[in-house]
Design goal:
Layout: E1 2-8, E2 14-19, E3 22-25, H1 26-33, H2 41-46, H3 51-61, H4 64-69, E4 71-73, E5 77-79, E6 90-94, H5 98-107, E7 119-123, E8 128-129, E9 133-137, E10 145-146, E11 149-155, E12 171-178, E13 181-182, H6 192-195, E14 201-209, E15 220-225, E16 228-234, H7 242-252, E17 260-262, E18 284-289, E19 293-301
Parallel strand pairs: 6-17, 8-14, 9-19
Antiparallel strand pairs: 1-2, 1-5, 1-14, 2-3, 3-4, 6-7, 10-13, 11-12, 11-17, 12-14, 15-16, 15-18, 18-19
Protein backbone atom coordinates (compact mmCIF):
# COMPACT_ATOMS: atom_id res chain seq x y z
CA UNK A 1 0.00 0.00 0.00
CA UNK A 2 1.23 3.46 -0.91
CA UNK A 3 0.22 5.83 1.88
CA UNK A 4 0.19 9.61 1.51
CA UNK A 5 -0.39 12.73 3.52
CA UNK A 6 -2.16 15.14 1.23
CA UNK A 7 -3.95 18.47 1.05
CA UNK A 8 -6.98 19.06 -1.12
CA UNK A 9 -7.41 22.76 -2.01
CA UNK A 10 -7.09 24.72 1.25
CA UNK A 11 -8.14 21.94 3.59
CA UNK A 12 -6.17 20.47 6.49
CA UNK A 13 -3.70 17.64 5.81
CA UNK A 14 -5.31 14.23 5.46
CA UNK A 15 -4.17 10.61 5.35
CA UNK A 16 -4.89 8.64 2.21
CA UNK A 17 -3.77 5.77 0.03
CA UNK A 18 -3.28 5.36 -3.69
CA UNK A 19 -5.96 3.37 -5.51
CA UNK A 20 -5.93 3.28 -9.30
CA UNK A 21 -5.68 6.95 -10.39
CA UNK A 22 -7.24 8.21 -7.16
CA UNK A 23 -6.28 9.05 -3.62
CA UNK A 24 -8.69 7.49 -1.18
CA UNK A 25 -9.10 9.29 2.12
CA UNK A 26 -8.33 6.80 4.90
CA UNK A 27 -10.90 8.10 7.37
CA UNK A 28 -13.62 8.20 4.70
CA UNK A 29 -12.77 4.66 3.63
CA UNK A 30 -13.06 3.51 7.21
CA UNK A 31 -16.53 5.06 7.37
CA UNK A 32 -17.86 3.19 4.32
CA UNK A 33 -16.53 -0.18 5.56
CA UNK A 34 -17.48 0.42 9.20
CA UNK A 35 -13.89 0.11 10.39
CA UNK A 36 -12.74 3.31 12.15
CA UNK A 37 -9.50 4.60 10.65
CA UNK A 38 -7.49 7.76 11.44
CA UNK A 39 -6.71 10.79 9.29
CA UNK A 40 -3.06 11.04 10.40
CA UNK A 41 -0.09 8.87 9.40
CA UNK A 42 1.35 8.57 12.90
CA UNK A 43 -2.03 7.55 14.30
CA UNK A 44 -2.25 4.81 11.66
CA UNK A 45 1.25 3.56 12.51
CA UNK A 46 0.24 3.49 16.17
CA UNK A 47 -2.51 1.00 15.28
CA UNK A 48 0.18 -1.57 14.53
CA UNK A 49 1.75 -3.16 11.50
CA UNK A 50 -1.05 -5.73 11.29
CA UNK A 51 -3.65 -3.08 10.43
CA UNK A 52 -2.33 -2.87 6.86
CA UNK A 53 -3.36 -6.46 6.11
CA UNK A 54 -6.81 -5.71 7.52
CA UNK A 55 -7.18 -2.62 5.33
CA UNK A 56 -6.02 -4.53 2.26
CA UNK A 57 -8.63 -7.20 2.95
CA UNK A 58 -11.33 -4.55 3.29
CA UNK A 59 -10.30 -2.95 -0.01
CA UNK A 60 -10.52 -6.33 -1.74
CA UNK A 61 -13.97 -6.98 -0.25
CA UNK A 62 -15.44 -3.55 -1.08
CA UNK A 63 -17.14 -2.98 -4.46
CA UNK A 64 -15.00 -0.70 -6.61
CA UNK A 65 -17.87 1.71 -7.24
CA UNK A 66 -18.08 2.42 -3.50
CA UNK A 67 -14.39 3.20 -3.29
CA UNK A 68 -14.47 5.32 -6.44
CA UNK A 69 -17.20 7.54 -4.95
CA UNK A 70 -14.81 8.79 -2.27
CA UNK A 71 -11.78 8.98 -4.55
CA UNK A 72 -9.98 12.26 -5.20
CA UNK A 73 -8.09 12.55 -8.51
CA UNK A 74 -4.38 12.32 -7.83
CA UNK A 75 -3.65 15.39 -9.95
CA UNK A 76 -5.93 17.58 -7.83
CA UNK A 77 -4.07 17.24 -4.52
CA UNK A 78 -0.80 18.45 -3.04
CA UNK A 79 1.40 15.83 -1.44
CA UNK A 80 3.07 16.57 1.86
CA UNK A 81 5.86 14.52 3.37
CA UNK A 82 4.32 11.20 4.48
CA UNK A 83 5.11 12.14 8.10
CA UNK A 84 5.12 15.96 7.93
CA UNK A 85 6.21 16.39 11.53
CA UNK A 86 8.03 13.39 13.04
CA UNK A 87 7.70 13.05 16.80
CA UNK A 88 11.47 12.71 17.15
CA UNK A 89 14.60 13.52 15.20
CA UNK A 90 15.22 11.50 12.06
CA UNK A 91 17.98 8.97 12.73
CA UNK A 92 20.73 9.36 10.15
CA UNK A 93 23.42 6.81 9.32
CA UNK A 94 26.74 8.06 8.01
CA UNK A 95 29.23 6.30 5.72
CA UNK A 96 27.08 3.23 5.13
CA UNK A 97 28.14 2.42 1.55
CA UNK A 98 31.75 1.32 0.96
CA UNK A 99 32.37 3.57 -2.06
CA UNK A 100 30.96 6.57 -0.19
CA UNK A 101 33.43 5.86 2.64
CA UNK A 102 36.23 6.04 0.08
CA UNK A 103 35.07 9.25 -1.60
CA UNK A 104 34.52 10.94 1.77
CA UNK A 105 38.08 10.12 2.79
CA UNK A 106 39.39 11.78 -0.37
CA UNK A 107 37.55 15.06 0.08
CA UNK A 108 36.26 15.33 3.66
CA UNK A 109 37.91 14.82 7.03
CA UNK A 110 37.03 11.13 7.41
CA UNK A 111 39.59 8.35 7.81
CA UNK A 112 38.62 6.04 4.96
CA UNK A 113 38.40 3.09 7.35
CA UNK A 114 35.18 1.09 7.18
CA UNK A 115 33.08 1.78 10.29
CA UNK A 116 32.96 -1.12 12.73
CA UNK A 117 29.61 0.07 14.07
CA UNK A 118 26.97 2.34 12.49
CA UNK A 119 27.78 6.05 12.58
CA UNK A 120 24.68 7.74 13.99
CA UNK A 121 23.58 11.37 13.70
CA UNK A 122 20.17 13.06 13.66
CA UNK A 123 18.09 15.59 11.79
CA UNK A 124 15.44 17.63 13.66
CA UNK A 125 11.75 17.33 12.68
CA UNK A 126 11.94 20.83 11.15
CA UNK A 127 14.23 19.47 8.42
CA UNK A 128 11.30 17.64 6.83
CA UNK A 129 9.79 18.99 3.64
CA UNK A 130 7.76 17.45 0.83
CA UNK A 131 8.34 16.73 -2.81
CA UNK A 132 7.83 19.75 -5.09
CA UNK A 133 8.96 22.19 -2.40
CA UNK A 134 12.03 24.39 -2.01
CA UNK A 135 15.18 23.38 -0.16
CA UNK A 136 16.47 26.53 1.49
CA UNK A 137 20.15 27.35 1.04
CA UNK A 138 21.08 29.97 3.61
CA UNK A 139 24.07 31.67 1.99
CA UNK A 140 25.07 33.13 5.37
CA UNK A 141 25.67 29.57 6.59
CA UNK A 142 26.84 27.58 3.59
CA UNK A 143 28.38 27.76 0.14
CA UNK A 144 28.70 23.96 -0.11
CA UNK A 145 25.20 22.48 -0.32
CA UNK A 146 25.19 18.81 -1.26
CA UNK A 147 22.78 15.95 -2.02
CA UNK A 148 22.39 12.39 -0.66
CA UNK A 149 19.65 10.02 -1.86
CA UNK A 150 18.68 7.46 0.79
CA UNK A 151 16.23 4.69 1.54
CA UNK A 152 14.42 5.55 4.76
CA UNK A 153 12.87 2.97 7.07
CA UNK A 154 9.80 3.75 9.18
CA UNK A 155 9.48 1.81 12.44
CA UNK A 156 6.13 0.21 13.25
CA UNK A 157 6.38 -0.93 16.86
CA UNK A 158 8.29 -0.21 20.04
CA UNK A 159 11.54 -2.07 20.40
CA UNK A 160 14.46 -2.26 22.81
CA UNK A 161 17.34 -4.74 22.49
CA UNK A 162 15.85 -6.10 19.26
CA UNK A 163 17.79 -9.14 17.98
CA UNK A 164 18.82 -9.01 14.33
CA UNK A 165 16.76 -12.12 13.58
CA UNK A 166 13.57 -10.28 14.58
CA UNK A 167 14.47 -6.78 13.41
CA UNK A 168 12.48 -6.73 10.17
CA UNK A 169 9.31 -7.45 12.17
CA UNK A 170 9.64 -3.90 13.52
CA UNK A 171 9.48 -2.24 10.08
CA UNK A 172 6.24 -0.53 9.07
CA UNK A 173 7.38 0.69 5.66
CA UNK A 174 9.77 2.71 3.55
CA UNK A 175 10.12 6.13 1.97
CA UNK A 176 12.73 8.26 0.16
CA UNK A 177 14.85 10.90 1.89
CA UNK A 178 17.34 13.32 0.36
CA UNK A 179 19.80 13.94 3.20
CA UNK A 180 20.73 17.50 2.19
CA UNK A 181 24.09 18.41 3.71
CA UNK A 182 26.03 21.66 4.11
CA UNK A 183 29.58 20.36 3.90
CA UNK A 184 31.16 23.55 5.28
CA UNK A 185 28.98 23.57 8.42
CA UNK A 186 30.44 20.68 10.36
CA UNK A 187 31.83 21.72 13.72
CA UNK A 188 34.69 19.72 15.25
CA UNK A 189 33.30 16.48 13.84
CA UNK A 190 29.70 17.21 14.79
CA UNK A 191 27.25 16.89 11.91
CA UNK A 192 23.97 18.37 13.12
CA UNK A 193 24.63 21.90 11.82
CA UNK A 194 25.56 20.38 8.46
CA UNK A 195 22.57 18.05 8.38
CA UNK A 196 19.95 19.73 10.53
CA UNK A 197 18.98 22.99 8.85
CA UNK A 198 15.34 23.63 7.95
CA UNK A 199 14.18 21.77 4.78
CA UNK A 200 17.27 19.53 4.77
CA UNK A 201 15.20 16.30 4.73
CA UNK A 202 12.94 16.20 1.67
CA UNK A 203 10.82 13.07 2.14
CA UNK A 204 8.25 11.13 0.16
CA UNK A 205 6.42 10.96 -2.10
CA UNK A 206 4.81 7.97 -0.38
CA UNK A 207 5.22 5.75 2.62
CA UNK A 208 5.19 2.28 1.07
CA UNK A 209 4.19 -0.45 3.51
CA UNK A 210 6.66 -3.29 3.87
CA UNK A 211 4.38 -5.89 2.27
CA UNK A 212 4.87 -4.02 -1.05
CA UNK A 213 8.67 -4.29 -0.96
CA UNK A 214 9.82 -7.87 -1.55
CA UNK A 215 13.46 -7.21 -0.68
CA UNK A 216 14.54 -3.82 0.67
CA UNK A 217 18.15 -4.92 0.28
CA UNK A 218 17.88 -5.01 -3.50
CA UNK A 219 16.48 -1.64 -4.51
CA UNK A 220 18.04 0.71 -7.04
CA UNK A 221 18.50 4.27 -5.82
CA UNK A 222 19.59 7.25 -7.90
CA UNK A 223 19.74 11.03 -7.94
CA UNK A 224 19.77 13.66 -10.67
CA UNK A 225 20.65 17.35 -10.57
CA UNK A 226 19.10 19.37 -13.41
CA UNK A 227 18.46 16.12 -15.25
CA UNK A 228 22.05 14.85 -14.99
CA UNK A 229 22.54 11.63 -13.05
CA UNK A 230 24.90 11.98 -10.08
CA UNK A 231 24.21 8.87 -7.99
CA UNK A 232 23.21 5.36 -9.06
CA UNK A 233 23.56 2.34 -6.80
CA UNK A 234 21.61 -0.38 -5.00
CA UNK A 235 20.76 -1.07 -1.38
CA UNK A 236 22.50 -4.44 -1.69
CA UNK A 237 25.70 -2.47 -1.08
CA UNK A 238 24.69 -1.23 2.36
CA UNK A 239 27.53 -1.78 4.79
CA UNK A 240 25.10 -2.20 7.70
CA UNK A 241 21.78 -3.67 6.59
CA UNK A 242 18.40 -2.60 7.91
CA UNK A 243 18.30 -5.43 10.43
CA UNK A 244 21.85 -4.56 11.53
CA UNK A 245 20.78 -0.97 12.10
CA UNK A 246 17.63 -1.82 14.02
CA UNK A 247 19.55 -4.18 16.29
CA UNK A 248 22.29 -1.61 16.95
CA UNK A 249 20.04 1.41 17.37
CA UNK A 250 17.68 -0.40 19.74
CA UNK A 251 20.63 -1.10 22.04
CA UNK A 252 21.40 2.63 22.15
CA UNK A 253 17.82 3.88 22.58
CA UNK A 254 14.25 2.65 22.38
CA UNK A 255 12.79 2.61 18.89
CA UNK A 256 9.17 3.72 18.72
CA UNK A 257 6.36 3.68 16.14
CA UNK A 258 6.93 6.42 13.57
CA UNK A 259 10.70 6.64 14.08
CA UNK A 260 12.53 7.19 10.79
CA UNK A 261 15.95 5.76 9.93
CA UNK A 262 17.74 7.22 6.90
CA UNK A 263 20.01 4.33 5.98
CA UNK A 264 22.85 6.20 4.28
CA UNK A 265 23.84 7.31 0.79
CA UNK A 266 25.97 5.72 -1.93
CA UNK A 267 28.87 7.32 -3.80
CA UNK A 268 28.34 10.24 -6.15
CA UNK A 269 27.77 13.15 -3.78
CA UNK A 270 28.97 16.58 -4.82
CA UNK A 271 31.75 16.69 -2.24
CA UNK A 272 33.25 13.53 -3.69
CA UNK A 273 33.55 14.81 -7.27
CA UNK A 274 36.60 16.29 -8.96
CA UNK A 275 36.08 19.17 -9.11
CA UNK A 276 33.57 19.30 -6.31
CA UNK A 277 30.00 20.27 -7.20
CA UNK A 278 27.51 22.17 -5.06
CA UNK A 279 23.83 23.04 -5.31
CA UNK A 280 22.85 26.58 -6.28
CA UNK A 281 19.73 28.70 -6.58
CA UNK A 282 17.25 27.17 -9.02
CA UNK A 283 18.87 23.73 -9.23
CA UNK A 284 16.35 20.88 -9.44
CA UNK A 285 17.17 17.70 -7.54
CA UNK A 286 15.38 14.38 -8.16
CA UNK A 287 15.93 11.53 -5.68
CA UNK A 288 14.53 8.10 -6.57
CA UNK A 289 14.28 4.72 -4.85
CA UNK A 290 12.93 1.75 -6.79
CA UNK A 291 9.46 0.67 -5.71
CA UNK A 292 8.82 3.87 -3.77
CA UNK A 293 9.05 6.83 -6.13
CA UNK A 294 10.80 10.12 -6.80
CA UNK A 295 10.96 13.34 -4.82
CA UNK A 296 11.73 16.56 -6.66
CA UNK A 297 12.99 19.71 -4.96
CA UNK A 298 14.30 23.08 -6.11
CA UNK A 299 17.10 24.94 -4.35
CA UNK A 300 16.20 28.43 -3.14
CA UNK A 301 18.95 30.73 -1.90
CA UNK A 302 18.23 33.27 0.83
Amino acid sequence: MKLVTYIEQNHEPRLGFLWQEFIIDMEDFGAIVNFPLPNDMLDLIDMGIEVIAEINDLIAETPEEYIAKIGVPFASVTLMAPIPRPRKNIIGIGLNYTEHVAESARTLDTTGKLPQKPIIFSKPPTTVTATNTAVIKNTKLTAQLDWEVELAVVIGKKGKYVPKTEAMDYVFGYTVINDISARDCRREGQWIVSKGQDTFAPMGPYLVTKDEIENPHNLNLSLKVNGVEKQNSNTQYLLFTIDDLIEDLSIVFTLEPGDIIATGTPAGVGAGRNPQEWLHDGDVVEATVEGIGTIINTIKEI
